[in-house]
């Protein structure tokens, strides 16, 4: 144990050097994790416990991912009373650092992943060299960009039905969107809300027909079509209603809504890769089967940047664990 701790301490000191802008770090890492949500922190934790002292590039402005903007998290195992999103991310960060993870608060802007030694350039101009890379940059919710949306985010406005639906038990709920996510959210939220109104800008849905039919048969779901939400209104503390604009008549109406769930899609944070990896049409990183291996050996992906289906903290953490194990296997076979 003493030797292991000394190794971590040595790596920690070596990697803490602060190169001037544009300088390449002389240290060669075994693993660099890009992203600091549940996937990134878990990957770093596993790599650290295996003795690799990984570097984690956490992001300059919003380390911790989407959960730092979430209030109560009640569905993460191990916290029967729930935990605040920022507290959960802080605990994960501390645990990763405890086992030797080195954190850098910067953003990766350029990558060269083709060789045996990968290079990552950050916004500060520093170039990091590493044998393996785990990309865990997540995705961001697409927003409506309307008055009141930002003000009441976390106070009525939500982007995650499975995270926040329970808080709106017996209250009027609005869901905005017309794809599979919006339809699935509406069906899920119908278990809780006194009513669920699905607002869609067209008169046809992009979602699968089976979900459309299920929603149409659900007596607690009402459809408002050819309409958009132009404003979220509240009492200064929480959301109370939305302004609905009919795109055909031009008429505006106010609709009671204690919960406003925006489900118009996600944007994976992969633009910095500049198509150096194989991505799908929407920008999600493609992985090989059940593994986290990408199209380039030594590069792995975890969390919402590669997972377009589940998008949960616990599934991201699990994928981060798998990415770390895949990276360890790769390193052992070099």
UniProtKB/TrEMBL annotation:
Cross-referenced SUPFAM superfamilies: FAD/NAD(P)-binding domain
Pfam families named in the record: Pyr_redox_2
* Cofactor(s) recorded in Swiss-Prot or TrEMBL: FAD
The answer to whether the entry has keyword Repressor is: no
Tagged with keyword Hydrolase: no
Q: How is the cofactor bound?
A: Binds 1 FAD per subunit.
Q: Taking every annotated instance into account, which residue ranges of this chain make up the domain FAD/NAD(P)-binding?
A: 29-320
One GO process term, biological-process aspect: removal of superoxide radicals
Family annotation (PROSITE patterns): PYRIDINE_REDOX_2 (PS00573)
Q: What class of enzyme is it?
A: oxidoreductase
Molecular function (Gene Ontology), one example: thioredoxin-disulfide reductase (NADPH) activity
Catalytic reaction equation(s): [thioredoxin]-dithiol + NADP(+) = [thioredoxin]-disulfide + NADPH + H(+)
Query: Got a GO cellular component term for this one?
Result: cytoplasm
Q: Which UniProt keywords apply?
A: Disulfide bond, FAD, Flavoprotein, NADP, Oxidoreductase, Redox-active center
EC number in record: 1.8.1.9
Q: Which InterPro entries match?
A: FAD/NAD-bd_sf, FAD/NAD-binding_dom, Ferredoxin-NADP_redctase_2, Pyr_nucl-diS_OxRdtase_2_AS, Thioredox_Rdtase
In the record, the note on similarity to other proteins reads:
Belongs to the class-II pyridine nucleotide-disulfide oxidoreductase family.
Quaternary structure annotation from Swiss-Prot or TrEMBL: Homodimer.
Q: State what protein this is by name.
A: Thioredoxin reductase
Q: What is the lineage of its organism?
A: Bacteria, Bacillati, Actinomycetota, Actinomycetes, Bifidobacteriales
């Amino acid at each position: 144990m003493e030797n292991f701790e000394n190794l971590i301490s040595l790596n920690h000191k070596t990697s803490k050097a602060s190169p001037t802008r544009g300088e390449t770090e002389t240290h060669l890492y075994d693993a660099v994790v890009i992203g600091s949500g549940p996937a990134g922190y878990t990957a770093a934790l596993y790599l650290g416990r295996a003795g690799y002292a990984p570097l984690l590039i956490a992001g300059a402005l919003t380390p911790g991912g989407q959960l730092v903007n979430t209030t109560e998290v009640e569905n993460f195992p191990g916290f029967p009373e729930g935990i605040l999103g920022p507290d959960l991310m802080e605990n994960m960060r501390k645990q990763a650092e405890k086992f030797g993870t080195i954190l850098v608060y910067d953003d990766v802007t350029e990558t060269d992943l083709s060789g045996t030694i990968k290079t990552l350039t950050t916004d500060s101009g520093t170039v990091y060299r590493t044998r393996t890379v785990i990309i865990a940059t997540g995705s961001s919710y697409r927003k409506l960009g309307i008055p009141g949306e930002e003000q009441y985010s976390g106070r009525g406005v939500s982007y995650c039905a499975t995270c926040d639906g329970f808080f709106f038990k017996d209250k009027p709920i609005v869901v905005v969107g017309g794809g599979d996510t919006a339809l699935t959210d509406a069906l899920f939220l119908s278990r809780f809300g006194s009513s669920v109104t699905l607002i869609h800008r067209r008169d046809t849905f992009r979602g699968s027909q089976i979900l459309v039919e299920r929603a149409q048969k659900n007596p607690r779901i009402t459809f408002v079509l050819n309409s958009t939400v132009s404003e979220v209104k509240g009492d200064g503390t929480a959301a109370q209603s939305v302004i609905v604009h009919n795109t055909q008549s031009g008429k505006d109406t106010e609709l009671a809504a204690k919960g406003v769930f925006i489900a118009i899609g996600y944007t994976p944070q992969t633009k910095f890769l500049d198509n150096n990896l194989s991505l799908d049409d929407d920008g999600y990183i493609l992985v090989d089967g059940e593994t986290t291996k990408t199209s380039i050996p030594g590069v792995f992906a975890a969390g919402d940047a590669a997972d377009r289906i589940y998008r949960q903290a616990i599934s991201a953490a699990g994928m981060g664990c798998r990415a770390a194990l895949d990276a360890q296997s790769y390193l052992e076979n070099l």
